[in-house]
Amino acid sequence: MKHSLFKPSPQGSRLLIRKMSFTATGILFIFLLKNVESGFRFQIIHGYDTAIKNHPHQASYHSQNVFVCGASVLSEKYVLTAAHCTEQYRRDVTVRVGSSFYNKDGVVIAVAEIFQHPGFDLISYNNDFSVLLLEQELAFSDSIKPVYLPNDNEIIPTGTECKISGFGVKAENSMTASEQLQATDVIVVDHAKCAESYIASPLFFEITEQMICAADADPESSKDNRDSCSGDSGGAIICSGYQVGVISAGNGCGRENFPGIYASVAQGRGWIRDITGI
């Protein structure tokens, strides 16, 4: 039986926005924007080194032996990532799990099939989900564990404390991924205020009910707020023990008035269940 932490939300919403993909040696920084010069991001800003045992769901997505994005373990057979990660990078795909590093240790398993959400598009970033079917089943351990998923259409209340993790860059202008897993704390921010910030910006991004916004819980603590950045896309935002979102997009990294954007797992829950049975 699933335990519901959040309240059901109304049906019939759309989704949006975009992020960037990463390589081990530099950046593939795919600026998936409407020809707008902006720093759509991917990694953990103002985070801290952490170990995989603290985030055993964490995985990394690789194409042709190049690190592209983060991901999360759903079950022995399935891994969840962002659709914008799989849109471009689908050749010789592998997933590394059970490691505090994206380039060593742990277990590397080939991906047998990629299920990209049929409703995803690079303009709106609606439905930014892809499920990966592994060629071999994972053996769970202290370093490899599945995430818990919320129920369909649950709403995550404003102010909910969450954690994000990943191997992305540590600063917006950096071009080097973090070999060591990084993590930091954020909170869910008011959806309407987040939408106002993005729609009023030159980016003119629409934040829909299929998205979650999260930002630094203490924005006055530093000039650059805690956030995800390049290379973190596809990873999980964990709130109250549940993966409520997939790291998807944002304007720069830790910029004032621009929270990180996450694809709402509760909104994509039905599709994930159809693919995985979970």
Automatic annotation (TrEMBL):
Its EC number is 3.4.21.4. Belongs to the peptidase S1 family. CLIP subfamily. SUPFAM superfamilies: Trypsin-like serine proteases. Residues 44-277 form the Peptidase S1 domain. It is an enzyme of class 3 (hydrolase). PROSITE patterns: TRYPSIN_DOM, TRYPSIN_HIS, TRYPSIN_SER. It comes from Clunio marinus. This is trypsin. Pfam families: Trypsin. PANTHER family: GH13245P2-RELATED, POLYSERASE-RELATED. Keywords: Digestion, Disulfide bond, Hydrolase, Protease, Serine protease, Zymogen.
